[in-house]
Amino acid sequence: MGGGGAVEGNVMFNLNRETEDTAAFNSWGRRTYLLSDYDSDPAKARVVPKEFHSIRRNLVLTRNYHSVGYQDNGDGLRCDDAASWYNMSSNILYKAYMEFNGGSQIWTHGNIFIQAGWKLCQHLTVGGSSYDAFVDPQRVWTPICGQQTCEAFWAPKDPQTGQKPANYHGDHNIVASSAASVDWRTLWCGYDFETWRNNTHQDASTVLLKDDPDWTPDAVIDRARRLLHMESSDLDVFDSSVFV
């Protein structure tokens, strides 16, 4: 609501045993709240928080670590019902997706998604993914409530307002896989990478790594361990060398 909330340094598993419509970290908000101005007169109202909410340096294993009696259920990070102003950074997500369903200013930054990525139930008003690593993903971006949720990224501006319905900003990501099951032609909302890049005009420096020896399972575990052990002060400005 007021911005500045933080969730950091947790291990999450065995979640969501009785429902699918949630996540390890589930946020929602249908109202616009008036906040006091931070820097001048507190009686002056503002609707934009000074700081983003932060979810960082968490290990999320979807619901059931041991897979006994239950199947994986729900997602890892979720902004529902117009929740806005979130930065998800430096998390490790195993089969745990970032799901978006309304709102704006939702960003992922410096995460390692293992067999996971973004899911869109509504078009993303403003936000995106940068310096994230997607390892063996089924999809990097997945529309789950209709293909138009992705196509809104390159839809024309509204002739009356002059605004675009969705604004994706993302770059410097890594997609790495040696899995034969990965279909590189459909990883981006059913499109190949060049089509995605040409349509969105983003991800100019994003790289695809196929059968790269630096992204074996053991190497990914080592990267994840280093990322989770970083000090909070080191995460304020993400250092991409953790992926090197």
How would you briefly describe this protein structure?
This protein has 244 residues and is mainly beta.
Question: How does this model look, in words?
Answer:
With 244 residues, the chain is mainly beta. Helices cover 10% and strands 28% of the residues. It has one domain (6-243). The protein has three helices and 20 strands. Strands 2-7-10-13-16-19-20 form a seven-stranded parallel beta sheet, with helices on one face. Strand 4 (35-36) and strand 5 form a beta hairpin.
Total beta strands: 20
Tally of discrete structural domains: 1
Largest sheet: 7 strands, parallel
Uncertain stretches of 5 or more adjacent residues: 237-244
- Mean pLDDT score: 83
The spatial strand order of the largest sheet comes to 2-7-10-13-16-19-20
Choose one word for the global shape. Answer: globular
Number of helices: 3
In whole angstroms, the N-to-C terminal distance is 37 Å
In percent, how helical is the residue content?
under 10%
Strand content: 25-35%
Could you say which structural class the secondary elements and strand pairing correspond to? Answer: mainly beta
Order of helices and strands: EEEEEEEEEEEEEEEEEHEEHEH
**Which radius of gyration do the C-alpha atoms yield?**
18 Å
Query: For this entry, what is the oligomeric state of its chains?
Result: single chain
